């Protein structure tokens, strides 16, 4: 059985008709669609200093969504860019509002621009990630924490996550996959994986779990998709986006079509041992896709879920 969750894309153009309100409105529309589709989880991404383009920030946005969303929820955190006490406080507060275990998707992050903007040397990414995860995990466990790296002394936070926390640690190279086995509850497969590369990386992860005596809670993978009632329309739109170099991905890494054909494309990941597919709507969709196409794609993921469960 494959669970189908959603990672809602939160980047947007500030030059759109809705201006700076456009991004939050689009995120809320997809969140409502995910609720109607009864998807299994909902998460938001993380990025900083994105101007002049926009990127809706995950913590306040998820707080708004949790007013209506009742399933498992969480956020991606680019851990090296967060002070661990602040991150733990945000997670604890969101988790107190959410149902079940709160999902923390933890990643190193990339792009020199956002590291410069946050005053973090990129060369410190790995050390800050490892210590940051350790500190946040301890704080969310109710401990009093010290950390020389972050100049933290006797820190404690509340509220604590009533349903606990699931740590999904991302990574696309062997060292990062090893780190996921060592630090996380599971490894979170990258969206750019194809069936061939996913098979390779899940084998690396299982081998690392064996060495660290870990039994993963789940093995999720993110996939960029576009679903429409018309297979021809979805294939025309998705095919054109891929041909234009969509995110630099291998064409086999994305899925587009009607619910039946997308289910066929994604079922291979269940065969490889993945337990959750976290969909992200391909973006930006062209005008040809039609008004409300992103929201409708999420709604149709409910049919996808039925076919893959």
Q: Please, could you describe this protein's structure?
A:
The protein has 309 residues and is α/β, with parallel strands linked by helices. The protein has a single domain (3-308), classed as Luciferase-like domain (TIM Barrel). 41% of the residues lie in helices and 19% in strands. It has 10 helices and 13 strands. It has helices at 22-36, 58-65, 84-97, 112-117, 125-140, 174-183, 195-211, 231-243, 259-271, 293-308; strands at 3-8, 11-12, 42-44, 54-55, 73-78, 102-107, 145-147, 152-155, 165-170, 186-188, 220-227, 255-257, 276-281. It has a 9-stranded parallel β-sheet. Helix 1 (22-36) runs parallel beside helix 10, helix 6 (174-183) packs across helix 7 (195-211) and helix 9 packs across helix 10. The radius of gyration is 19 Å and the shape is globular. The protein starts with a strand and ends with a helix. The mean pLDDT is 95.
């Amino acid at each position: 059985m494959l669970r189908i969750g959603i990672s809602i894309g939160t980047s947007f153009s500030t030059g759109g008709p809705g201006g700076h309100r456009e991004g939050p409105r689009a995120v809320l529309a997809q969140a409502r669609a995910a609720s109607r589709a009864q998807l299994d989880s909902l998460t938001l991404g993380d990025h900083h200093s994105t101007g002049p383009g926009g990127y809706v920030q995950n913590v306040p946005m998820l707080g708004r969504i949790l007013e209506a969303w009742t399933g498992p929820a969480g956020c991606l955190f680019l851990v090296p860019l967060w002070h661990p006490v602040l991150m733990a406080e945000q997670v604890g507060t969101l988790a107190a509002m959410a149902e079940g275990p709160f999902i923390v998707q933890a990643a190193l992050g990339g792009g020199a621009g956002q590291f410069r903007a946050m005053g973090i040397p990129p060369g410190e990414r790995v050390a800050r990630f490892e210590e940051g995860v350790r500190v946040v995990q301890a704080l969310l466990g109710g401990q009093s924490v010290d950390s020389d790296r972050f100049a933290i002394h006797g820190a404690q936070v509340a509220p604590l996550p009533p349903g606990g926390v699931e740590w999904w640690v991302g990574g696309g190279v062997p060292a990062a996959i090893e780190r996921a086995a060592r630090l996380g509850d599971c490894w979170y497969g990258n969206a750019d994986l194809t069936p061939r590369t996913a098979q390779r990386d899940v084998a690396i992860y299982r081998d690392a779990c064996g060495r660290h005596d870990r039994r993963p809670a789940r093995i999720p993978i993110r996939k960029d998709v576009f679903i429409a009632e018309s297979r021809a329309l979805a294939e025309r739109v998705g095919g054109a986006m891929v041909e234009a170099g969509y995110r630099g991905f291998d064409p086999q890494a994305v899925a587009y079509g009607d619910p039946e054909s997308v289910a066929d494309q994604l079922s291979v990941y269940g065969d490889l041992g993945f337990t959750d597919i976290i969909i992200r709507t391909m973006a930006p969709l062209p005008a040809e896709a039609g008004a409300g196409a992103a929201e409708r794609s999420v709604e149709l993921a409910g049919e996808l879920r039925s076919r893959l469960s």
